[in-house]
Amino acid sequence: MRLDGVHIAGVGVCLPGVMDTREAAGRGVPGAAEAVESGWTGVAVAGERPAPEMAAEAAQQALARSAHGPADIAVLMYASILPHGPEGWPPQTYVQRRVVGGTIPAVEIRQQCNGMLGGVELAACFLTAHDRLAALVTGADNFGTPMFDRWRYAAAAGTNRTSITGDAGAALVLSRKGGFARLCAVGSMSVPWLEDLFRSGIPLFPPEPTLGRIPDVGARFADYRRRDPAAFAAAKDALSRARAELARRTLDEAGVTADQITRVTHVFAGARPYVEGVLTPLGIDASRGMLEFGRRLGHLGTCDPVVALDHLVATGGVVPGDHVLMLSNGGASLACAVVEITGRPAWLTAPPRTAGAAR
């Protein structure tokens, strides 16, 4: 979907301290040695800090960096993966109450790692359909719960590679007024038959979290592969083709070629083959991705693309005139955005903060 007059006015990030994976492996942390072998150098760990608090901090920073006040925000999107508090409690309204107040609609989005970019599309549609001024898109997760193993949640079936998860909060302010970047186009799609891959071997009732069992996505993949190796290979191929199709379509809608893309934000991974698998089909070299930055933080759930954008802007990795391709996928859902950097953000008049630096 091509967009006209929708800008990114503010970006905010809440990153906790980073744990060195080699140090963790040296202390005998289960799964840390496999993480080092898979290319991970660090992981952001929030301790007992609640995810909604990180989302609220990031949202406050994004709003402060924008030219907008709370009264300008017409809708709030909140992306999450894990449960964020008491059962039945609405975390999106917690962020609303802390940051903007009022009675605007606040929506929680559950598209796994795709949530924030999916929220960007929904927020942009809301602003254009209702002719409103600004929207706030937020997301966060703390994977340090007793019911989640950040080190071993998704070991790749049949390989020695593993994914690890880091904790973070992130936020964007979308604006019809202006900003430091222009949202040229945004799109999304789903590959619904892949849902079987993400539940293989797990009954739908009772829900897994109620059984006191730690989720193991890698085990589900392995089960699917054992049952039907051909279908497993076809599923991986279908995801790759869908991601490339969506990216090409969104680039075409934006009127931007792959050669004009300066950097690409994507799901953080520890290994180069993943980044190459995402970018090579588009004719984009892996060096334009975020491999080195991402693998020192862990996969930040739904926050990867926004944390990466913040880092690129803050460190001068992109400057006015550059284009950024933002990609994400989670489960069977995918999203893509093409962003043009149009100005130097006012907050960079102060010494820039490096988003990924350990603190």
Automatic annotation (TrEMBL):
SUPFAM superfamilies per the UniProt record, alphabetical: Thiolase-like (SSF53901)
Superkingdom in the source lineage: Bacteria
InterPro entries: ACP_syn_III_C, Thiolase-like
Secretion signal span: none
Domain Beta-ketoacyl-[acyl-carrier-protein] synthase III C-terminal: 251-340
Transmembrane segments: none
Protein name, UniProt field: Ketoacyl-ACP synthase III family protein
